[in-house]
Write a structure and sequence with these properties.
The structure is a homodimer of 193-residue chains. With 193 residues, chain A is mostly helical. In chain A, 74% of the residues lie in helices and 0% in strands. Chain A folds into 2 domains: 1-55, Orthogonal Bundle (Arc Repressor Mutant, subunit A); 74-190, no CATH class. Chain A is elongated, with a radius of gyration of 19 Å. Chain B binds a DNA duplex (30 and 30 nucleotides) through residues 1-7, 29-31, 39-43, 45-47, 50-51.
DNA sequence: TTAATTTTGAAACGTTCATTTCAATAAAAT
DNA sequence: ATTTTATTGAAATGAACGTTTCAAAATTAA
């Protein structure tokens, strides 16, 4: 009977994510991945098919991890505005902890590859869909509770928030001042009040 | 006495910009640049030193062109809010005209290279400084005219606008719906009123 | 132990990478 | 016409690229 996959796939993805995050897709070589994961070159191809195949798994891994971490910040039964506050605060924390100014892997990849690689474009479209749906839901709840104004529809505010998050991610690459970032998210969220 | 540079440097930079914009720095090869510019490989090295050298000139070229174009949109003697409106509208136009979803060369480069290449980091820091100073000035004028509120300082609003612009640039990669984008900038600017 | 299957190591695949070299050609000022 | 410098073309540099190959080693179930 077959020998079973021995290496820790989560650990391998974690290490691969680190390299891709630091160097970008085109800046990362297969040798970089061999070095970072400790996996044999052949094993990478056996398990992930190609560099792009591995990267797609890395993207999902990164997103799932982010969602998991952010989920912890969101307390049940807090109002919609506090939920948004928690989300944005998580981004600020993530920015401040990012000592080497890498930014967000997903945002970086969007700007690097959406116009070049259909698989990436699909991922990003699906990612946007998912985030927009979530944000719209939160805003909608806030509007029902009269905590968020109705100057704009929930959909319109969701796009505003989605755009603001991407802006925050880009800004955080060069600006990691906690007070300035917290003031920034205060300004962003003030629109909804 | 010496033969003088014969090729049209502006035209060469224009063509080089197109390739770098489409493929990103790491995605662009020297062969791509030879093909796009029509210049000989040696001439590129003679005139620009290296791939990075050429890219640095391309970055400045792209920025100067953008500033020039945007300058035309800004009418003299309009109030501060209208100036901001003009600026954001120019971005929307640029997004809509960008049929192949390349996004902004400078934003893309920031996310690809700031943490890898000191020259790029300096460029981006200087670029941010410049934009922030300009935005701060506009906001400050608006506040003097009582057209922009004073809930936040001009500096704080400048960061908010700078961040919003980067967000708009990222959003515009996948979302090119004119009405949605115009509503987005309306929401962004509503904070200042 | 044997049979089945995956992981591993190392080498090689052919291509492309950024950059250099150099002799030949072209143009301007003396 | 001669000198000076730039542009050009084409080839070559050596290293790195993503991917494939394959026999040896390892592991599990029968």
């Amino acid at each position: 009977m077959p020998k079973v996959e021995t290496f820790d796939r989560t650990n391998v993805l974690h290490n691969a994510t680190e390299v891709f995050h630091k160097k970008g897709y085109n800046g990362t070589s297969m040798q970089d991945l061999v070095d970072a994961t400790g996996l044999n070159r052949s094993s990478i191809y056996n398990s992930f098919g190609s560099k792009l195949g591995m990267f797609m798994e890395v993207l999902s891994f990164y997103r799932n991890n982010g969602n998991k971490q952010m989920g912890k910040e969101i307390v049940q039964n807090q109002n919609a505005l506090d939920t948004l506050q928690s989300i944005f605060c998580w981004y600020v924390t993530d920015i401040i902890e990012d000592k080497d100014h890498k930014g967000c892997l997903i945002v970086n990849c969007k700007s690097e590859m959406v116009n070049q690689e259909p698989l990436i474009r699909s991922f990003m479209e699906q990612n946007q869909e998912q985030m927009m749906a979530f944000l719209e839901d939160v805003v909608h709840n806030g509007q029902m509770e009269k905590i968020i104004n109705e100057d704009q529809t929930a959909t319109q505010y969701a796009l505003y928030l989605y755009s603001s998050i991407q802006g925050l991610r880009m800004t955080g690459i060069l600006n990691t001042n906690k007070e300035e970032l917290e003031n920034l998210i205060h300004t962003i969220l003030s629109v909804l009040k």
